[in-house]
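User: Here's a protein and a ligand (beta-D-fucofuranose). What would the complex look like?
Assistant: Let me lay out the input and then the predicted complex.
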Amino acid sequence: LLTACGGGGGTSGGGALTLGFAQVGAESGWRTANTKSIQESAKAAGIELKFSDAQQKQENQIAAIRSYIQQKVKVIAFSPVVESGWDTVLKEAKTANIPVILTDRAVDSADKTLYKTFLGSDFVAEGKKAGEWLAKEFGSATGDVSIVELQGTTGSAPANDRKKGFADVIASNPKFKVVASQTGEFTRAKGKEVMEAFLKSQPKIDVLYAHNDDMALGAIEAIEAAGKVPGKDIKIVSVDGVRDALQALADGKINHVVECNPLLGPQLMDLVKKVAAGEQVPPRIETTETEFDQAAAKAALPQRQY
Ligand code: GYE
């Protein structure tokens, strides 16, 4: 009779539990908070963390995952920059018997056995919340409401899903018109640049929907430089809930923020321990999130960690 050794995966000597984490990059305030949460909670959990920053490039993430396989880490976790194109490397991990955990962003692989679980947010629901705020805010508006949209990284789960959730809600009223929609790559610099172009090409902009706070913050600079008042001349709704955006909301420059929680570290380390021990885990774990209007932002700011 053969004795099965639970969990599988290699050991890296000394019996330490080693986690290889392939991060997207450092594109936003959300991402910085997410990285800090992962690093701090790995330390607190006594997990040896190998960390890499892919600078928003899929090929860098694939290379990092391959190097973790080669180093025989016990568990691999990553936040896939885009949804498609992961099957080959995920199969390599599976063949090496190293369990994979998806955090924050999803993949579109048909074979769900290529990873153990997904930990993160419901991005469609976030987009819907932004759309519902808009539908309420402009409920009594007569005439067309012109919306510009700053999308996140092209092909990423949050960009795809936040676009969809929002579109689904505003489709119920034909007066809501998305007049321009382009990627701002989830960064302040690109958000500013694309908003400058929108302001030049669009004669009338009533609302900006930004898929994250950083792009909204960049866009605010462009709006002010164009002699307009953000939050008044152009209403703004964005997603994340980082300090700077809550401050802008408290100051009246942003009108509504949908929260997306980056503090996934503690839950991730729990999952790492469980999959390393060969325990069964739920296939999908979603974080609980709220929304902020101006009063809520003012109340949350003193305690906001990121
Ligand atoms: O909203 C954005 C970051 O994947 C949820 O990535 C995350 C997104 C977040 O760059 O700020």
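Summary: Confidence is low (pLDDT under 50) at residues 1-13.
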